[in-house]
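Backbones bend. Shown next:

***
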Amino acid sequence: MIRNKKGSSMVLLSMVFVTFAMCIASTIAISRKLVIKSECEAFGLVWTRAVLGEYDINLLRDYGIQAYWGLDCDVEKKLNHYSDYSLNGKMSIDNVDIIVDLMNSELSNPDNFRTAVKKSGLTAAAGTLMNDKRRVLIKDVDDDRWGHRIIRNKGVIASLPSKGIKNKFDVELIKNSIKNIKDKDDITGIFSSCAHDLAFMYRYMGSHNERLAGKETLLRNEWEYVVTGSYDDNGNYKAAKNKIRLIRNAMNLIYLYSNPEKRELITATSEAITPGPAAAATAILISEAWALIETEHDMDTLENNGRVPVMKNEHTWKTSLKSALKSEKVRDALDEDGKKLLGMNLNDIDEEGSSATGSVKEGLTYENYLMILVASLDRNIRTLRIMDIVTINMKYRHYEDFNMDEYHTSIDYSIKADGKQYEFDDEYK
């Protein structure tokens, strides 16, 4: 009986001991998993910030954009190095595997670039205050090539985000969207959809008339490149200027047709030099010639950093009808009788008060008109060409092999440890 009791006690004690040992083992296992989880999560966040912290300082200084360089394999190698260093001497973790996926983080993705541009606002504002960067008028240029360079390197062209994408120019659409604009304060409405792009361009890019002080660039006509997209710097300037000329010509024609005094003067003149049914066609000819003469005057004003209102009035219209009648456009279209009558009536044309003198203080500058052209672009084309300018200057100023495909604005990777996977996804704030 006593032996049976002793045997039962031994069995019970053994069971208690085994149970206790199992609890301890289970507690150790759970604690180990919690420690592994804690270490992976804590170190993972540190490694994430370490990678993001290696942003390109030149890209930040020149354009206020935070992005780091590296392919998937480069970042993965770096994270494995961090893992080996951080976990050395820590609790043993078997089968640590780090997988990096940067597919959706490339700076070359237009959406990512637009996000980076928006975030650059705060950095850029602070940088502008500290460095006192200001736009300056371009006067004397020491480098004769500047403004006339042509990008011919096929490798450079192949690395540009836009890939030479073209756009259509619709002067009628622009004319209808700006015809009620009176001065620079009225144009903000049409810029609402591209405010960040325009702010970025104004802060970091130059035009034919203005540049950023102290910043050397490959192209002079950067705004014009965004408008046109040619690899010929001077060609971009000519094309952008021609687009502005078409806009001004259209707006000047609107003014001539809408102003009763001007319209009456044109009608009377056309009837005097081509009596009869031909007078209507002559009136159109004179109107177009007059608008063109005024447009050329507008372009000279803009090139000399003056202002030209979108819609003219009697105080801002600068040219006379006589100057239009003396033009080749009118004279070449008239027959001999018309030319004779024109000569007889030219001195009798009364234009008192029809042309203004002095400078115009209200209106838009050359860059304001460029802004209108930029705002009229397809959003994707505009973004890609801005990206081109960043790429071109990063190559020119810092790295010949700069490629936006290799720069990233966020990081996405996973740590797999002891069969458990931990996800990490972070970006620049």
User: Anything to note?
Assistant: Residues 2-108+405-427 form one domain.
